[in-house]
Amino acid sequence: MAEAAYADEFESMLEESFGQVTSIEGSVVKGIVVEVENDHALIDVGLKSEGRVALKEFAAPGQKAELKPGDEVEVYVERLEDRNGEAMLSRDKARREEAWAALERAFNDNERVTGVIFSRVKGGFTVDLSGAVAFLPGSQVDIRPVRDIGPLMGTPQPFQILKMDRRRGNIVVSRRAVLEESRAEARSELVASLKEGMVLQGVVKNITDYGAFVDLGGVDGLLHVTDIAWRRINHPTEALQIGQTVKVQVIRFNPETQRISLGMKQLEADPWEGVELRYPVGTKFTGRVTNITDYGAFVELQPGIEGLVHVSEMSWTKKNVHPGKIVSTSQEVEVMILDVDPNKRRISLGLKQCLGNPWEDFVEKYPAGTELEGEVKNITEFGLFIGLPGEIDGMVHLSDIDWDTPGEEAIQTYKKGDMVRAKVLDVDVEKERISLGIKQLTTDPFEAGSAGVRKGAVVTCTVTQITDGGIEVSVGEGMTGFIRKAELSRDRSEQRPERFAVDEKVDAKVTNIDNKTRKLTLSIKAREVEEEKKAMQEFGSSDSGASLGDILGAALKQREEAAKGDE
């Protein structure tokens, strides 16, 4: 009976002991280092045999393990016995189990964890979280794409656990989530303290045609292309590149929309200060063509200072020509300062003023009265344009083509390309006009003929044309005249143009000589009145008893006798 009771008690104790031993399999237990030999440590965890663990499992990455007999360590019991009868222990798995427990707490509490990126894998990187290996997707490394991951490798970094699956041993972490959270905090702090005029450092985040977006540390600001530099910048890439660190000033800030306008040039001295003293009107400078438009070309005099050469100030002779046919971008040119307006930040420049004025040169070489030859460049309704030395044109007005032929008829004898001789009549340098004459190459026949004719003289005319208002006549060589209807006779009944015939000779008195219109004004009536006065004086008056008919008859008789005597 006693033996049976003892056997039951022994069996119970054996089962309890065996149950305790088998329960530690797959768990972390404390053990004592019994011996350190070669590259392994012999550890006693209370089982019937010790287990061996590689020393490298107790060492930090890149370091040697500092382990000696008697040290207490935690290990993971994989199996109670292997084929050699030793316990299978692991320090790595013990550390991993500890890490998983800590990571689960951090994941449940939404806390950050510290890890080290140690290798690159497909789609991302692997991270050591104090023994547990996690996956870091490439998109979760940083807020912006990272070209070089080198500086982040091997350095402790804060991470946020996005997903955990202990059964599969999967952990996904994000460094970007931590940065965005920190960025949000920094953004709130920055926006609260942001003021116009502040100078900040930022990183160029994005570049567009109209400017660049700069990350100020949680908040972006727009750096417009016109605020990058005082000099002309056609595209932001001429001065900036993505990822570049820049110093900027807050120009405008709207707290409601949180829009921030930034400037870089505002941190430099304004080149327009004192511009009038540096660029006096009338002085010449050399500059570089930066931009060409339909209305002119912009020339950079110094970085940040540009002036406009209007198309009208580019050439003395080339009119209605696109500026691009006169200058080219980046060309060095000499210009003259025509006007400076510091308030509007405008400088007017002249290109042609640095070249000789062809009209001034022309008037020096070819003063009025000079005869020269040129090609007919153009024919218009009011005259001929003739090409002259210096790539300029002169005009022969219709009235200066021929002395006798009307201009509308005379111009018909010319065509483009004809070489003609002309005389310089006048040069207006200010209006850039040169007046030429072709008829002036010969003597004016009217002037020559009128030299022997004086006002009041009686001349013999030849009727050339009969009109309702009077008759046209020719006098001598090259002179024409007109006798109005009222001047055709002293007698009103005889004031009829139709009583005259073409080629008929008539005597008339010259009443006016108009050198401008080159015409004589004549009067038969005035001649008859004058003859009557002379007859009255010579043959008597009505008071003497002689009638007017007697007097005129005597005068006519004397005139006929005088005519016979001349024969």
What do the pLDDT scores average to? Answer: 81
Q: Quote the beta fraction.
A: 35-45%
**First and last CA, distance:** 208 Å
Number of strands: 30
Instruction: Count helical runs.
Output: 9
The unreliable regions are 14-22
The assigned structural class equals: alpha+beta
| Residues in helix, % | 10-25%
Strand order of the largest sheet: 1-2-3-5-4
The biggest beta sheet reads: 5 strands, mixed, barrel
Task: Specify the overall morphology.
Answer: rod-shaped
Question: What report would you give on this structure?
Answer:
By secondary structure, the chain is an alpha+beta fold. It has a five-stranded mixed beta barrel with strand order 1-2-3-5-4. A five-stranded antiparallel sheet has the order 8-7-6-9-10. A five-stranded mixed barrel has the order 11-12-13-15-14. The protein contains nine helices and 30 strands. 20% of the residues lie in helices and 38% in strands. Strand 29 (505-514) and strand 30 form a beta hairpin. It is rod-shaped, with a radius of gyration of 58 Å. Helix 8 (524-539) crosses helix 9 (548-566).
Strand and helix map with partners:
Blueprint: H1 2-23, E1 28-37, E2 40-44, E3 51-54, E4 72-79, E5 87-90, H2 91-108, E6 112-121, E7 124-129, E8 132-137, E9 156-165, E10 170-174, H3 176-193, E11 199-208, E12 211-215, E13 220-224, E14 245-254, E15 259-263, H4 275-278, E16 284-293, E17 296-302, E18 305-310, E19 332-341, E20 346-350, H5 358-365, E21 371-380, E22 383-388, E23 392-397, H6 407-410, E24 419-428, E25 433-437, H7 445-450, E26 458-467, E27 470-475, E28 479-484, E29 505-514, E30 519-523, H8 524-539, H9 548-566
Parallel strand pairs: 3-5, 13-15, 18-20, 23-25, 28-30
Antiparallel strand pairs: 1-2, 1-4, 2-3, 4-5, 6-7, 6-9, 7-8, 9-10, 11-12, 11-14, 12-13, 14-15, 16-17, 16-19, 17-18, 19-20, 21-22, 21-24, 22-23, 24-25, 26-27, 26-29, 27-28, 29-30
Helix pairs in contact: 8-9
